[in-house]
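Posted in: Protein Modeling Q&A

I'm a second-year student putting together a small comparison for a lab meeting, and my supervisor asked me to include a predicted structure for HTH araC/xylS-type domain-containing protein. I've never done this before, so apologies if this is the wrong subforum. The sequence is pasted below exactly as I got it from our records. If anyone can share the structure token output, I'd also love a short note on what stands out.
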Amino acid sequence: MADDARITDSARTRAGALESLATGQLDPGQARGEWSETLNRHYGELDVEWPRADSSFEAQWTGRAFGDLHISTIHAQRHGVVRSPAMISSDGVHDYLVGLIVDGQAEITQNGRTAQLGPGSFVILDSAQPFRYSCPTDFRQIVLTAPRALLTARLPDRSLRSATARTVSGTSGAGVLVTSVFSGIADIDSDISPASTEALVSSALDILVTAMTEAQLPLSAPATARDQDLAVAKHAIVRHLHQPDFSIGDVAAELGMSVRYVQKLFAAEGSSPSTWQLEQRVERARKYLLTTNLTVSEISSQVGFRDPSHFSRRFRHAFAVNPQRFRNDHRGASVEQIGTDPCMSPSAKSSEVTEPQ
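Accepted answer (user: helix_wrangler)
Welcome! Here is the predicted structure, written out as tokens:
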């Protein structure tokens, strides 16, 4: 491999090390091998379809982790990729992929549907389902990889499955914001704090889900209404995570729904309001442990637990270690380098680390 074919910028540790691959200096066989390896490593096992096996292949790829997401840019000559059931069984990758075309065209097939993309439009793919992604011309695109749990927390599996391989315009409605936000994240070239990264990730996914919903996915009217009601109920729970007394009855009263109806909304995706609320509290605590200088006791209070001991037990159940051990094992930056979450109360923001928990 040429010395400059693959570059890793390990200095950008907070937003993730920047990786890149350029095939222009490589012979055709080497270029194809390096390209296939890069795609497989970052998007799951794929079979690359080349227009001509003996011709040169020029392409550039850059990517990095951005919080819980991975963002990458691809500028390449025409080719395609296929993901088969055997590949899915082999690697167990179940992430969602969002492909945003900047230049060129793409044709995507999944779940019996085919989407045609042009500049400014985007599509969502489920890597747990077979798909074909073909670009018949030279192209440039942005690819966002999101862990499955981050999207299923915002939309039911049924809605996400219906959303795959459907063209969403990035030039009108909420799609404009998707294009702007994803392009902005891909272009970030400076250090960014963990707290800001977490906030941007959450906002980016919320905007993506809004654009998908706005595209009026072809579910039945009752199913669409239930999915929208579930999303509203989840947002209400998240808004009040810091309040330990905020009950399912409070959710129902705030939204003008019955308690039974709220319970049925969550039951349809195999959960319950209280279980989902607890999962979100523990997940927010995980983020605070990594991105703030609050003590474990303070975090426990901020995410709605009355008793730090109860919080520690629930956290250990979810992550197999206690909160302080998790923080020590996963947070590379020192406390002085880390800011506070902008959603916290003023008293919590002003707190200092006084004792490990």
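A couple of things worth pointing out for your meeting: Residues 162 and 218 are 7 Å apart (CA to CA). Confidence is low (pLDDT under 50) at residues 7-14, 333-357.
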